[in-house]
């Protein structure tokens, strides 16, 4: 009798631990059935490239997730509103794009909460997700993000568009690696993104032809 109770208790504890792990390490949005792909843009908003990205997304009726940098939002607040009102999700990519592993606890908190305030002022919601710059995470980053109620949002397909390998290379790298549930990392800010803009139309057209639909992180 007592052993049976202990076993049930142990099973409950294991289930609870697994549930916590699932939440804590959630690198991708909730799995959706079928051929879904998540298109994401980092480091914006950019006065030059974000409007061009929005135009292409609109042409294909695709919604994406924009992981924006707080100081960029402060510099271009109307662009973040424009991204949000076009139906896209805006999420947190820190205030000034540091490697989060190198920060004190208070610096980490500032990077996240100051950016959240900017996003909330333009969208009315509190972000669910934090994308760590450079994908740089460790146990401390995970714990601090969780303490602030953030899920870490990484990616599964990285065409390294920021290195400007040419629009054809960006397109090929994405299209040859996308699988159902993939999270594609692209950039609308942080530098010259003309190659990303040039590649985007072909990427969306081909993914649609392959039967993919597009989803975003929760707004
Ligand atoms: Zn970034």
| CATH class label | Alpha Beta
**SSE sequence, one letter per element:** HEHEHHEHEHEHEHE
Ligand names: zinc ion
Corresponding CATH architecture: Alpha-Beta Barrel
Rough shape? Answer: globular
Poorly predicted regions = 1-27
Q: What radius of gyration results from the CA coordinates?
A: 19 Å
How many helical stretches? 8
Helix content: 40-55%
SS-based class: alpha/beta
How would you describe this structure to a colleague?
The chain is an alpha/beta fold and 219 residues long. It has one domain (2-214): Glycoside hydrolase/deacetylase (TIM Barrel), CATH 3.20.20.370. It has 8 helices and 7 strands. The protein has helices spanning 2-24, 49-60, 70-75, 77-85, 105-123, 139-147, 167-175, 194-209; strands at 36-42, 65-68, 89-92, 129-130, 151-152, 183-187, 213-214. The strands form 2 sheets. Strands 1, 2, 3, 6 and 7 form a 5-stranded parallel β-sheet that branches. Strands 4-5 form a two-stranded parallel ribbon. Strand 4, helix 6 (139-147) and strand 5 (151-152) form a beta-alpha-beta unit. Helix 4 (77-85) packs across helix 5 and helix 7 runs parallel beside helix 8 (194-209). The longest helix is centred in the first third of the chain and has 23 residues, at 2-24. The radius of gyration is 19 Å and the shape is globular. It starts with a helix and ends in a 5-residue tail after the last strand. The model is unreliable at 1-27 (pLDDT under 50). It binds zinc ion. Residues 42-43, 93, 97, 133 line the site of zinc ion.
